Amino acid sequence: MEEYLKSYQVTMQTVGPVFIGTGKEILKKEYIYLNQKKIGIPDTYRLYRELRKRGKAEAFERYLLGKENLDLTKWLQNQKIHIADIRPSIKYTLDCGDTITEKGSGQLHIMECIKDAYEKPYIPGSSLKGMFRTILLGADILTDPEKYGSAKENMLRDSALNMGRTAYLKKNIAQVESIAYRTLTRDEKRPDAAVNDILQGLVVSDSEPLSTDSLVLCQKVDRHTDGTEKYLPILRECIKPETTIRFTLTIDTSICGLTGKNLMAAVKRFMTSYYNNFSKTFTGLDIPRGNHVLCGGGCGFVSKTIIYPMYRKETGLRMTQRIFEKTNVPRMHKHDMDKKYGASPHIIKCTKYQGKTYQMGMCKIEKIKRL
Predict the structure, then answer these.
(1) How far apart are CA 179 and CA 147, in angstroms?
(2) Which pLDDT belongs to residue 173?
(3) Which of 86, 148, 186, 335 could pair with 195 as two cysteines, CB 3.0-4.6 Å apart?
(4) CA–CA separation, 196 and 294 (whole Å)
(5) Which runs of E-coded beta strand occur in the chain?
(6) SS3 label, residue 85
């Protein structure tokens, strides 16, 4: 009997820092500056136990529960507690040598990276499948644009309407996804139903867990089309560059015809479109290769959408600008200037690591091996 389940091991390497957030923040009362280049994330229970031995438990409770606007490093200094005294309480450390904060801003909150039950960072399968879902959709539009002709016209027409932020182009995107993915006939009365989605036949595992040594503290950097950069007061725990990520794809070939070969072809098409229609406008960035992908949070609008594969550069720029306008993106972002700068958005999401600028979330797929 022919096997209908095919499994592949995917080996991916981070090119730039990758952020997969939990939605939680590590507050300034929850981390310590060990020196100018490293911060420590303590185990609060172990830290409390150590402070109780030193008769500082009540003072620590008042500090944590109070409104005192003091970071943990300074509080420990005021309590005459040396870093060496509480070092055994540190769960892990983060390199923070590339972060720059404005004078007087003090310590900032850190957006936390997702970790498993053993405090090991990883990339969830849902994030990886979402990445592939966008890539496959964009690549199919690029390969067979005529198939999406009516959806393209409908979206262009409806983009001028005022629909409210949450409803804006929602039906149009559903139409595009229905053309690409809702091709099964499990529910013939509702062809747009999720049970008809062929990507139910694509199962993506969580990545193998990583060491906390693979984490680095990164600051959000907005890079303009002319290469100028602005450091923003947003810090993230990220998976550092040159980290190997491994995960498994399982394809049910009875409902999904995807293979490792055509997945890599889709990656190349999507990233080529991303570069030619968007990132090429930004000076001083490395040119992405055909096996590159953008994974995780903070990668920017273009990496998560199919506007540029659908409309290419000129119309895609106008469409993206209109989307920002209709969804009430704050005026301080100056999207009305996008056409002048030749890209929409005219800022690309970057960060710094060891003195070099990287696009957030840039990775490369090194191998897709049949198991």
Answers:
(1) 8
(2) 95
(3) 186
(4) 27
(5) 5-14, 21-26, 32-33, 38-42, 90-95, 110-113, 202-204, 215-224, 229-239, 244-252, 292-294, 347-353, 356-359, 362-370
(6) helix
Cα separation of 214 and 46, whole Å? Answer: 23
Give pLDDT, residue 335. Answer: 86
Q: Which of 111, 99, 86, 120 is nearest to 38 (CA)?
A: 99
What's the pLDDT score for residue 3? 82
Q: Check: CB of residue 351 under 8 Å from CB of residue 238.
A: yes
Q: Contact, 239 vs 120, CB < 8 A? A: no
Dihedrals phi, psi of 190, to nearest 5 degrees: -125, 80
d(CA 347, CA 342): 11
pLDDT tens readout for residues 133-189: 999 999 999 999 999 999 999 999 999 999 988 899 999 999 999 999 999 988 888
Q: Which of 84, 98, 91 is nearest to 37 (CA)?
A: 98
Give the helix/strand (H/E) hosting 211. none
State how far the Cα of 162 lies from the Cα of 167, in Å rounded to an integer.
Answer: 9
Which pLDDT score is estimated for 103? 41
What is the rounded CA–CA span in Å between residue 138 and residue 177?
A: 10
Q: How far is it, in rounded angstroms, from Cα 148 to Cα 23?
A: 35
Residue 106 confidence (pLDDT):
58
Token couple for 22: 């939990």
Query: Which residues lie across from 350 on neighbouring strands?
Result: 221, 359
Instruction: Give me the residues of the chain with pLDDT under 50, please.
Output: 1, 102-104
With H, G, I as helix, E, B as strand and everything else as coil, classify residue 5: strand
